[in-house]
């Protein structure tokens, strides 16, 4: 996929001393460097288990909570924002999580280069940047090419769980994901995830949250 428009703008942001320390000392333990080669999850986690990818883990509270609650599943979180990566590394260390690793890189490139087709039991896409201005809509992650890529990486029956508090982005997600031939809506789609940081912000502003769950056709 040739791609010039990214779904994020890298702003420096303030990295706290603790996050910086985590980036330096904990990344080698709990991080995975980006590499343009397929990831061998069995080697990384030392076992065979369902693998779930989270795109845009932000500060990582929800990511760590979900991994802690599901020790039977392995998780890879992807985030470009250094403070968020640092913060998640600290949580992994504090909770002694063996089933969660973090990659600091563009999730689309990670999907394309590091994830073998059919390897994922799930993809979490919680509150992707909404890019509310019309002229920025092209930056939204959920577009037909992304849907095709994500669907290809899911195992048959694997689930893409997206959530947003922007009604027009929810409508876009629904239309794009419904239009992807490999995907179909999960019949018993229910919200099974903890509240995220961005969600709390949206709810405070009176936004309505929508969860969209699509699985790969079997
Ligand atoms: C609105 S925040 C939501 C964070 C978190 N999921 C939550 O709900 O609190 C979106 C996050 O996605 C990250 N992001 C956006 N595009 C990305 C990409 N292509 N690859 C990795 N991270 C990305 C941003 O840096 C940001 O931290």
Low-confidence stretches: none
Determine the number of helices (DSSP H or I, runs of at least 4 residues): 9
Give every kind of bound small molecule, once each. Answer: S-adenosylmethionine
- Rg result: 16 Å
Q: What is the spatial order of strands in the main beta sheet?
A: 3-2-1-4-5-7-6
- Percent helix, as a range, is 25-40%
Strand proportion: 15-25%
Q: Biggest β-sheet: count, sense, barrel? A: 7 strands, mixed
Distance between the termini: 25 Å
Task: Name the shape in a single word.
Answer: globular
- Average of pLDDT: 95
Q: Give me the strand/helix succession.
A: HHHEHEHEHEHEHEHE
Oligomerization: single chain
Give the number of DSSP strands: 7
The assigned structural class equals alpha/beta
Describe the protein.
The model has no long low-confidence stretch (mean pLDDT 95). Helix 7 links the parallel strand 4 and strand 5. Strands 3-2-1-4-5-7-6 form a seven-stranded mixed β-sheet, sandwiched between helices. Helix 1 crosses helix 5 and helix 4 runs parallel beside helix 5. The chain is an alpha/beta fold and 218 residues long. The protein is built from nine helices and seven strands. It binds S-adenosylmethionine (SAM). The site of S-adenosylmethionine has 23 residues, from helix 6 and helix 9.
């Amino acid at each position: 996929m040739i791609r010039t428009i990214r779904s994020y703008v890298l702003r420096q942001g303030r990295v706290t001393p603790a996050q910086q320390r985590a980036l330096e000392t904990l990344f080698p333990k709990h991080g995975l460097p980006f590499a343009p080669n397929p990831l061998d999850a069995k080697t990384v986690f030392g076992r065979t288990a369902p693998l779930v990818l989270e795109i845009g883990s932000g500060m990582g509270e929800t990511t760590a909570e979900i991994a802690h609650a599901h020790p039977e599943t392995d998780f890879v979180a992807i985030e470009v924002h250094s403070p968020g990566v640092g913060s998640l590394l600290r949580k992994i260390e504090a909770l002694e999580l063996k089933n969660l690793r973090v990659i600091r890189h563009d999730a689309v490139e990670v999907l394309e280069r590091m994830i073998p087709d059919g390897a994922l039991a799930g993809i979490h896409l919680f509150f992707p940047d909404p890019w509310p201005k019309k002229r920025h809509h092209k930056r939204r992650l959920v577009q037909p090419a992304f849907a095709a890529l994500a669907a290809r990486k899911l195992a048959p029956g694997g689930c893409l769980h997206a959530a947003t508090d922007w009604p027009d982005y929810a409508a876009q997600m629904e239309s794009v994901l419904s239009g992807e031939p490999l995907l179909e809506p999960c019949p018993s789609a229910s919200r099974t995830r903890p509240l995220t940081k961005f969600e709390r912000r949206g709810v405070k502003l009176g936004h309505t949250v929508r969860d969209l769950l699509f699985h790969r056709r079997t």
